[in-house]
Amino acid sequence: MAMSYKVRFWDIRERPQRRKPFEVRWTVNGRERSESFITKGLAESRRAKLMTAAREGEAFDEQTGPLSVSFG
After folding, report:
1. CA-to-CA distance for 38 and 63, rounded, in angstroms?
2. Region 20-31: what's the mean pLDDT?
3. Which of 33, 40, 48, 57 has the fewest CB atoms nearer than 10 Å to its CB?
């Protein structure tokens, strides 16, 4: 499990032709990660949780993100 504090975020991307059209994207140590959601509200909520974890100084796993907000 590679952990890093080097995290960057992008705006939420909308892909209208997809089943889950709203995509949250970020990088950990230069590796791009993303998650897709059915509604923009869900995507905004996930992005806010990720950004809060980064702001509070949590390390991010390159595969799953910060441990405090990882999906089980």
Report:
1. 22
2. 94
3. 57
